[in-house]
Design brief:
199 residues; alpha/beta; seven-stranded parallel beta sheet
Length: 199
Amino acid sequence: MNIAVYCGSSPQATPCYIEAASQLGRWIGANGHRLVYGGSSIGLMGAVSRAALDAGGEAIGVEPGFFIEAGVAQHDLTELIVVDTMGERKAKMIELADVFVALPGGVGTLEEISEVMSLMRLGMEPGPCYLLNLNGFYDGLRQLLGSMRDAAFLDDADCEKVWFPATVGELAQCLDAHKLPEGGKPRRPVVPESNCPLG
């Protein structure tokens, strides 16, 4: 399974978020999945990619040329896809991915996962999205989406595609449940009800 991971690249990121990115990367690599991410070697991006590779997995980076020129590209990736613009980067990651994960990050991370959610609402991507709500990081967004639903800008079917696991372990359960059982249909994630989707 190709797992797109959106996350921050700030080298000053809180250590617990860096560790969560490393845990997810190790899980991706150890379980035979492929990481699709933004290509950077710093912050959570660097942590998730290094961990996936160190665990024997594959990592595909998608990065605009101007970031590579700045010297922030991760080395030794399975594949590095160079694009011209941030828009092309987002489109390529969506094209490559089977499932979408947002770790803690800034406005770039929010923009990327929001685009996926918008495409899901239009029926153009399978989803669902998983936002790692470590330490309540995404509580505000979860509340905002609930307000959108209450105001009839979203419906229950939209909300059921956006999940908020609170730990990397719960996120791994979600991703395991996303896989197709042999000859069957996709299973719904089974994680604590308080965390997924919008309470």
